[in-house]
Structure formats: C-alpha cells, structure tokens
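DM between two lab members

TW: hey, do you still have the RCC1 and BTB domain-containing protein 1 entry open?
JB: yeah, one sec
JB: this one, 423 aa:
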Amino acid sequence: MSNIDKWLIFSILEPDFVSNIKIACVFGSSGNEALIVNKDDDVYALGSNCSGCLGLGDSHGSLEPRKVESLCKKGIESFAYGSGPHVLAITADGELFSWGHNGYCQLGNGGTNQGLSPGLISSNVLGRKVIEVACGSHHSIALTSEERRSRKCISVACGQTSSMAVLDNGEVYGWGYNGNGQLGIGGNANQANPYRVSNLQGVVVQREQETKTNQVLPVKIAAEIGRVVEIAASHYNHISAALTQTSKVYMWGQCRGQAVTTPAETPFHSLHDVFACFASPAVTWKPMELDVVLTNKVSDSVRLSFDEEETSDLKFNVDGKLIHVHKSILKIRCEHFRSMFQAHWGTIDITQFSYPVYRAFLKFLYTDEVDLPPEDAIGLLDLANSYCEVQLKKHCECIIKHGITVENVAMLYAAAIKYCAKR
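TW: and the structure you got?
JB:
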C-alpha cells in the first residue's frame, strides 16, 4: 500500500478528503497534476492543468480539488497518461474517455483539436469493452476483451515513442522507435509492426549489468535479490523499481540526479513510494489504489493525551489549577523529571512559575510546540534555563525576537541579557 503522504501534491488536502480516496494518480512534467477517484465514485482533479489535462473544461490550474463532472458516477477504474500530455480513462463497463493534447491524434477522437473535457471514444471501440489502456508521449493503446480472446494479448505498455504487448503464451512484442534498443530485439532499427522479442522466450541472457551502456537485447540483472513479483517504470523519467517475493523494494536508474547502476534496496513497502521520493519528476507509474484509514499517529496520540485526566498518573498544581500529565512521557522527554520523580507522587505543587508558563512547558514536552506571547515567553525562558531545556530555550528566543516592539524592546532586551539568550 502506497503512503499518500509522500506525494507533495496531496499534502494540503483535508484529512477527510484523503480518507475517501479510492484511486489517485500523479502526472505532469513536474509531477504537478493529479486525478482522484473517491469512494463515492466522484472524480476530482488538481494541479497546473497543462493542455487541459485535468479535464475540467478550461485551462485554469487549481491547488484545491475540482470535480470533473463528466466523469463522476461513471465507474472510473483506471487512468493512463502520456507526457504529450494527454490522459485516458476507462470505466468498469469498458468505456474509454480521452482528453488533453491532441496534435498527433493521440486522443483517438477522429480529430486533432485539444480536448479540455473528457470525451467518450466511439470510433472502432464502440460496443467493445476496453480493459487496459497505455499512453506514450504522443500515442495511445487500448486493449479490449475481444482482442484478449482472439489475439491472446493480455497486457500492453507504452514507452515514450514505442509500445510493447504480452501474449498469454509468454511471447513479448515491441514496435515503434528503437534508437536506444528499447524494444530489445537485438538492434536499434525502428519497427513499424510488432516484432517478437525472442530473448524473452525461454532462456534469458545470463549477464549481470553494472553499466550505463545501452542494451539492444534483454539481459538479466540482480539475480541475488530473489524472485521479483512486480516491476515499475515510466516514460516520464529514468527510474525503475522492483518488488520481490519477500516484499523488499529495489530501485535503480536516475534517482534524484544520481546514477544508480544496480538495484539498490530501499526501506519502502510500495513501488509507488520509490517514484514519490526519487523520481524526477515524481509521477505515479500507474494509478494508485488506496484504502486510506484515518488513524492517529503516535505523535498525534501523545499530543492529544496532554492534560487528559482519564489516562494521567500525575498532576501539577500551579496557581490553584491542575495540569494532568504522564510520568513516563515526562521522564522520557526531560532530564529534570527523570532525576526527580518518585513513585508515590500523585500531585506536585509548583510555586516558582505561573500557570500559563508551566502549562506551556508541559505541553511542549508533548508536542514540541510553544504558543505564548513574548511577555510570557520570558518566564518560559527562565524555566528552560532552570531545567536545562536547550530546545525549549531556542523556541523562546524565537518568540521573543519576533515579538519585539517599540513598547517592549527594553524589557525584552534586559531579559535576553539575564538569561544569556543568543538570538
């Protein structure tokens, strides 16, 4: 399962919206466009909207998700996107929609006009169920259920200017541009018709690769990583990834500007995470299928437990007001408390510091955040000095520095000198 938090374009979405996402894909020359299908079967788009690829009927970009009305409630199951740029979408009923750049007729709608909104493709596929689509930079492929039955083709894929197909007997065919040997047919001549990749039939060439040299035949790499169950690549960038039977994820290629010539093990659990973190641009290699469940992270749970009477095992009495905390958290976070706590303590009276200051200190131990006006931050700075809390002291110094006015500058300056504030 991919972690959607790794994709920057989704970082400002509301948690409730994210939790309702079913399918998401990221594309665009800078990984700056996205399409989303939610669990209510509504389709949304956000991003720069290059060539109208968001399908919104206009060319306006949007930081916030906008509904793609013409695709809502259509049962969209998958997308494909080319760097031209253009987009294809298929429904559960096998209908095919296309939109975006169309200078090379890649939308398949019988013309060359740009499509600002998704259009249903009827030419040659009307009445047939489309089950898979793929996009190159300026071309498209659609696989129908009829073709799967009669021609035994089970999958298709596109490079930037080339195409591949797999038959159910294991044969692989390639056609299109072949200047770098990307078809794997033993030469670099372009192919106008599908050409069988003979080296993928039966025995594969047994040769380890650790080079940038182009290869005109398929070669076996990294046998030591074990059985590979899924591979990923995109014509948007120059990175590849593999998932092994033991759920390890490897990557190689141009990884954030670095040439990784042999598969490198990553800490990821999804191939999508490789593309989110190391591909340039960061685009999904295929649509992500998500099942996001909103659960509190450890940090969120700790934050919410501050001043929670039900779970606390210690109270501070400051100015007659109680603050409920947890001994274990305070001992983990603060050397002062680690050395002073005794098991029988239930309530500790604090007289040296005010309630707002001491509450802010305890809350900092739970959240790493400080929210006080500059005048109160002086008292917290005093506490930070007393308890030897270096990070808290830095927070206080920033608050005081940013809160300087004509009225309080003398007082704050005197406090800075008193507490040896360096900022």
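TW: got it. Residues 203-210 have pLDDT under 50 and may be disordered. The chain is about 20% helix and 30% strand.
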